Every structure is written in C-alpha cells, then in structure tokens.
Amino acid sequence: MSEQNERRPAANFETVSIRTQTERSLHREHSAPMFLTSSFVFNNAEQARALFAEEEEGLVYSRYGNPNVDEFVQKLCLLEGCEDGIATATGMAAVFAGLAALLSTGDHLVASRAIFGSTHAVLTTVLNRWGIEHTYVDPADNEQWRRAITPRTRMLFVETPSNPGLALVDLEYLGRLAAERDLILNVDNCFATPYLQTPTSWGAQLVTHSATKFIDGQGRVLGGAVLGPAELIGKVRSFARATGPAISAFNAWLLSKSLETLAVRMERHCANALALARHLQQHPKISEVRYPFLESHPQRELAQKQMRLGGGLVTCEVQGGREGGMRFLDGLQMISRSSNLGDTRSIATHPATTTHSKLTEEERRAVAITPGLVRISVGLETISDIMADVDRALEQV
Ligand SMILES: *Cc1c(COP(=O)(O)O)cnc(C)c1O
User: Measured from the CB, is residue 251 less than 6 Å from ligand 1?
Assistant: First the structure.
C-alpha cells in the first residue's frame, strides 16, 4: 500500500526553483506569463475524444489543469522529491483532499496533538462523522506514535516543527515505522518548507503544504499542495477534479515566482530568527525561549539532523502571564499583530488569547501553550530594528 516516491529532492535547489518553467509561447517571453483561461480548445474532434478518454495528456479545463498551476506543482515536486502532486486554493483544501481521498469509513489515523487548528477541526467535526477516527499523540514521543497504531490505522499525520510549541517529530523514526506497518506517512511541511526539510528523504509518502505561509512569503495569496507517489496522488487528483478545490492560475503564477526566491528568503528568515532567539535569551523579562537550533532546545540534535536551519519562528515566555503577553503585543510599534506567519514582515501572536483560545486551559498546557507564550514569525526587516521593537515592547510589560 505505502508506495514510495521514486524521486530524490533536487540537490540544486536554487536552480530548480528558478529554471523550472512552462514552455515558452510564440512570443518567446523570458518570464512565464499568466494563463487566465478557464478552458482550452481542441485541434479537432479526435483530439477531444483522446483527451477525454485519457489516451492523450493535455490541457482541457482549468479545474483539471492549467500551465501556471502545472509549473508550480512541477517545481514543488522536484524540490520535495515527489513524483506527482496537485495544487489547491488553500492549505486546508490540500490537507482535506489528502485525508478525504485516501481514508474511508472504518479507517484510523494517528496525528500529532500539536496540529494546526483547522486540521484539528477537520478530524473532529468532519472525518469523525464519516466514521474515520483518530488518536492524538505527543509529537516528540516516538513510543506514543508506535503504541497508538491499531490494525485499522492507515495514516500518520505530522507537523514538524509544531505550532507554536516548536516540538519536533523524529521523521526517520516515523518513516521506518510507516514502512514497517504499511502506513502512509503524511507530513504537513508548511513550517519548514522544502528548503529546510524534505520529509521524503526520511520515508514520508505524502507532503502537504500551505503555500500561504513561507512559500508565498509575502502575505499576498492563499494556496496549498499535496505531493507524493503517482499512485496515491492519482486518487487525490480524482477527488480534487470531482470536488473542485483548484487554485486560481493567478495565485499559482505568484506562488511559482515566490519559489524562485524561497532559498534566499529562508536563509535570512532563519538567520534573523536565530539572532532574535539569542537576543531574547538575554532579556530579564523573558523566562524561556524556544527555537529548534538553540543550544537549550531539548531536540536540538534531531533538529540539526533533519533540518538545514532552524526555521523562521521563535516562541518565548513573557513575564506576567496572559496580561504580560497581551501588553507585549500592544507595546509593538513595527512588528505586526496578526495571526499569520511566514511573511517578509515580522508578526507577533499571543496564541492563548487568539489562535488557540478555543482550547481549554488543560488542552493548551498539553501542547505547551502557556498564558504568557508569544510567537514571533521573524521577517526580513533589518535585524536591529526587529530587536529594538521587541525591546521597546518588553519595556511595557
Ligand atoms: C496555515 C496552515 C495551514 C492551512 O493553510 P491555509 O492556506 O490557511 O488554508 C495548514 N497547516 C499549517 C501548519 C499551517 O500553518
């Protein structure tokens, strides 16, 4: 069942992300144009017949495929080391398509407890009504993953690093576990992006993305993708063709352009994030700083094994609990108060009162969200300006 991807992630990341381009048109354009067309014409009736009979590959209708969408997907497949993929209008459409196309009534999945809020909602309010059950486990506890597997388990669903706790899942361990038990390992790689981490290198079959975050990287558009072996993606594609979560050509065009600069952007996001994490560690009003590549992170060794750099997110515990966290947010003058992440602009979030406010105090504790926890998505502004804004805000705490 668990077909493997035959490809390896491209080693020449920058070249592939820049030079993978849809065929030039008659105009010999240098940069790929946008194909804003809902449908494509057939040269003759025989071609129409062959395309519909799937004897010939080609463009028919933009819900099925479009040159801009295909270029975006092809690049992502090369960067992630996947054979095939589909792009979707949002990250959640990608998460949902991957789950709904491959799981059936009676199936079970094991998921990390520290999972994106809307993914949690899909598991608990949609899939459970269809008789697809799940078990949550502590992402960092390998034994819990193993023990949660039942004879009905079909998939392991993972986010690493987790949001906002920045706990890591041991991808090599889960890759082996999935192969041993014939399960699909599905990794939501949104936080790391293929530049920092390629789950297929550790045996993951499916890679799911919200392209809305670091892949776009400029807070402009929504998008998502599911990538994997041709056989599994065939099922996801059939599901998506029928149910219609297609991404627009415009968004796919933007996202494909964004991939051209992903490597250089991630380098700077990570450098700024590490510098900010070190700076925060020195501050008397901060009691704990979490960042995967910090010496103090309990899984630093694992982070350095499976990630190229530590990522663009830093979390810290501000003195004064809930009030302290909220005062810190109000004291910021440059850094945006927003719930998004993965933007050129730095963004601060207070999870306990916003993104994770619907959880009970106890549920928040289980995923390491303390009342004073603040998450910073570190942007690409000058690092001294980011530090100065944080220091100013901490004076208000
Ligand atoms: C944002 C996010 C999603 C959902 O993506 P949308 O594009 O907002 O639908 C899924 N997973 C993770 C980890 C995310 O951060």
Answer: no
What's the pLDDT tens digit per position in 200-225? 999 999 999 999 999 999 999 999 99
- Determine if ligand 1 sits within 6 Å of the CB of residue 214: no
102-151 pLDDT tens trace: 999 999 999 999 999 899 999 999 999 999 999 999 999 999 999 999 99
188 CA from centroid of ligand 1 (Å): 9
CATH of the domain at 62: 3.40.640.10
Return d(Cα 208, Cα 92) in angstroms, integer: 9
CA of 158 to the centre of ligand 1 (A): 13
**pLDDT value at position 61?**
95
pLDDT of residue 3 exceeding 80: no
Task: Tell me how far CA of residue 249 lies from CA of 69, 122, 240, 307, 342, in angstroms.
Answer: 6, 26, 16, 31, 22
What confidence score (pLDDT) does residue 43 get? 96
Residue ending a domain, choose from 259, 285, 307: 259
Are residue 197 and residue 337 in the same domain, yes or no?
Answer: no
**Number of the ligand 1 atom closest to the C-alpha atom of 342:** 15
Single residue among 228, 259, 290 that ends a domain in this structure: 259
SS3 label, residue 112: strand
Question: 45 C-alpha to center of ligand 1: Å?
Answer: 42
- Report the half-sphere exposure of 27 (CA within 13 A, side-chain side): 5
Query: Does any ligand 1 atom lie closer than 6 A to the CB of residue 116?
Result: yes
What are the tens digits of pLDDT across the range 255-314?
A: 999 999 999 999 999 999 999 999 999 999 999 999 999 999 999 999 999 999 999 999
For the CA of 340, the closest atom of ligand 1 is: 1
| Domain co-membership, 44 together with 72 | yes
Separation between Cα atoms, residue 386 and residue 196, nearest integer Å:
23
CA atoms in the 13 A half-sphere facing the CB of 275: 18
> What total number of domains does the chain contain?
2
Centre of ligand 1 to C-alpha 187, Å, is 12
